[in-house]
TrEMBL record:
The gene is pyrF. This is Orotidine 5'-phosphate decarboxylase. The keyword Lyase applies. Residues 5-230 form the Orotidine 5'-phosphate decarboxylase domain. One of its GO terms (molecular function) is orotidine-5'-phosphate decarboxylase activity.
Length: 239
C-alpha cells in the first residue's frame, strides 16, 4: 500500500509519540520526516528506531552556517543513514558546495550511499506580506527559482519548496532534480498555518517528486485511513 512519494512528518517531541504513529501506520507508510522538534528532543535514537522499522528518513534540520561548519555537520549526519538532508539555499554557493563534497567524501569513507542534499528555498509559511517584512526584494517565486538553479549548479540533489513553485522549478532544473514539497493539504484537511499550499494530486502533476504531509495524517481521527485517502488522491498521477 505504501507509496514512497509520501513522506509523513513526525512533528512530535517524544519517542512514545513516534512509536505510536509509526507502529499504527505500519506498512502503509515507508518514508518519514524527522525535523528539529523531534531530533533536538530525542536525537539519533529516532533515526535508529525508524531504520529498525525499515523506513526511509528525511532529516529536515535546515543547516545554515559558515561552509566549514555545515560541511562537518553533513559529515556527522551522513553516519546516521538518512536518505535526505536539508540545508538553507540562502547559505550561498560556497556553503552548498562544501556540503555536497562532505556528503560524497563521508559516504565513500563509510562505504555507504551518501544522503541526497536538498536546498531550502522559501519556507511555505511565507506569504507576500511577511516576505516583504524581512526585506525580500524579488517576488517569492522569483527568489525560489533563483535559489533552485543555484542549488543545481552547486551539485545539490534538489530543493524543498512550495508546490506552487514546483512546475517552474521542474522546467528550470530538469527531470532528475528532486522537488520535495511541504504544505500539502489533501481535500479533506484544514490548511492550518500554511499559506502556500496544494493538494497531493496537483503538486505531483506540477512536478513534485515527494510530498511531506503531517497534521492531516498524524492528527486525523483515523491516521491509517487518512493515508489511504491521500494515496488514493496520488494514484491518479503516474510515478
Amino acid at each position: 500500500m505504501a507509496d514512497d512519494r509520501l513522506i509523513v512528518a513526525l512533528d512530535v517531541s517524544t519517542m512514545d509519540a513516534v512509536k505510536e504513529i509509526v507502529l499504527s501506520l505500519g506498512d502503509s507508510v515507508s518514508f518519514y520526516k524527522v525535523g528539529m522538534e523531534l531530533f533536538y528532543a530525542e536525537g539519533a535514537k529516532t533515526i535508529r528506531f525508524l531504520q529498525e522499522q525499515n523506513k526511509q528518513i528525511f532529516l529536515d534540520l535546515k543547516l545554515h552556517d559558515i561552509p566549514n561548519t555545515v560541511a562537518h555537520g553533513v559529515s556527522s549526519l551522513t553516519r546516521l543513514g538518512a536518505s535526505l538532508i536539508t540545508l538553507h539555499g540562502q547559505g550561498g554557493p560556497v556553503m552548498m558546495k562544501a556540503a555536497v563534497e562532505a556528503a560524497r567524501e563521508s559516504g565513500e569513507t563509510l562505504g555507504v550511499e551518501r544522503p541526497k542534499l536538498l536546498a531550502i528555498t522559501a519556507l511555505t509559511s511565507f506569504d507576500d506580506e511577511s516576505w516583504t517584512a524581512i526585506g525580500g526584494q524579488l517576488p517569492i517565486s522569483d527568489q525560489v527559482i533563483r535559489l533552485a538553479k543555484l542549488a543545481k549548479e552547486c551539485g545539490m540533489d534538489g530543493v524543498v519548496c512550495s508546490a506552487l513553485e514546483a512546475k517552474m522549478i521542474r522546467e528550470a532544473c530538469g527531470d532528475d532534480f528532486l522537488i520535495v514539497t511541504p504544505g500539502i493539504r489533501p481535500s479533506f484537511a484544514a490548511t492550518n498555518d500554511q499559506k502556500r499550499i496544494a493538494t497531493p494530486a496537483s503538486a505531483l502533476q506540477d512536478g513534485a517528486s515527494r510530498l511531506v504531509i503531517g497534521r492531516p495524517i498524524t492528527q486525523a481521527e483515523n491516521p491509517r485511513e487518512a493515508v489511504r485517502l491521500i494515496i488514493e488522491e496520488m494514484e491518479n498521477v503516474s510515478k
